[in-house]
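Aggregate trends can hide what the representation actually does to any particular protein. The sequence in question and its structure tokens are set out directly beneath this paragraph.
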Amino acid sequence: MMLRHRKVLLAVSLLVAGGSFYSALGYAVYLHSDRYRTKKERELARFLELPVSIGDVKPQNYYRADFLDIRAWLPGKRSEIFRCDVAEMHELPRQGDAFGLVIRNGRLVIDDDQWNVNDYRYVLRSGLAHDFAALQLRWVDLYDMDLSWRKGPAAFTVRKATGHIGFTEPAMDTGEIEGRISVISHTLNDTRTNEPINVVARFRPSRNLAVYEVVLRVPSMPVKALGLESLLGVEQTHGQFEGRLIYREENGHPHVSLDGRAVGIELLDWTKSLEAGPIRGRFDLQIDQAELTDMGLVSAKFSGRAQALNLTDLARVFGLAPLEGAAAFEVLSAEIGDAGVVRMSVRGEVVDGSLEPIVAMIGPGKLTGTFRLKVNSLDVADNQVVSADVDFEVVPPKDKPGTLDTELIIHGARKLMGVELSPLISATLRRLDSVTYSRLAFKLIADEGQLRILGTHGAGRRAILTVKVFGTDLAVVTQPERPMELAPLMTQLRTTGQERLRELFQRYQPTTTSVPAMP
């Protein structure tokens, strides 16, 4: 009797074991079948709402299956937008039905040449606008991915990128989760960098998709590698840039924040297409903060240095009389708002400046030599000059004494400083056509809405112009006793330069067509 029971138990055990074995074997065959691959292909296409193909499925164990040669197209298979060699699905047994996904060796392409306006919104929603909490997807890892974006004339490609997509636990009050994408690469537009290029994005993965923020961090790399030539209408051939760009939406409108540092930028690259002609020179720029919307530049805080500026170019662009010479300026700090200059502190120098335009403002006559101008400080607040300290000096020609016409002295004192020369000096000068000047220099001090013109030499350092008359130095022009009102002068200068500045800003304003449509 006992032996019979043992035989029955053995038979049952063999049946169970055999059944389990053949069941597992049958399931394994099913997983390798074209029927299973087709089923998963339909499920993925239904999930993404896009045409999809899967080349093969290879189960690795109870917790992992590899999907090979996955491809996705725009509706109607108009253009392939995604492909990868391997997508590994990892079940997470300790987390119920949760799973993770590893995507290897693939490419994602967003190409405006083949996309219509609605494709951006469609693809973004197909990839992110899902209830990932219900799907139990915990994370996605990316390896060796090429990401390409083309919008009109602008194109950006990141190669061999690695990344991670993670999701938070559902919020206690709303039940919503937040997604975070982090991508790292060392190649942008086929330019390799030693330090990583990093993109981080935060979004709400649901049918009510919301992209909270996208942050791009770029290490020091050639400006040319950023691929902005066609987008901005300029070709950058010089300079390096490093910095951060933050994209977010505020009240349904795109908002971009920018900070970073540009070094060795050639103005000629950026201004060659100006109607008034290009500006030669170099600049370094530290952008503490710049805010842009679809309406253009809203505000900016920056500092920088401009060197080897060509005065001829600057005078032409701003509609001034022709100038010669070179200038270098340093913006110690500046803040610009939608109403203009909030504050700005500047210093700089002009050397070998041509005197002809200055002489032309005074009246007929000649003055030989060049001028040197040194801006020790210039502070502006709310579009008004708060204070200034400027030194101006005429430098005689190198090979001969400097001369100026006497009629120019008389008219200059009256027109520029509002003073009349003493009858004795005026009568003496009128007896001569021109004189040799020993020194022509003055200091401009602006403060509390007034402009003072101060002498730099002579008795009490009050002389502005000292000339040689019959072999003797004579201070013929001294500093005026009363200051001048600054407001009328600044109004005239602003009227001259505002239109040119507006043209420069408007030329490089971003437009809504340069930003992909967002849902």
Summary: Residues 2-31 form the longest helix (30 residues). Residues 1-31, 507-519 have pLDDT under 50 and may be disordered. Residues 215 and 246 are 4 Å apart (CA to CA).
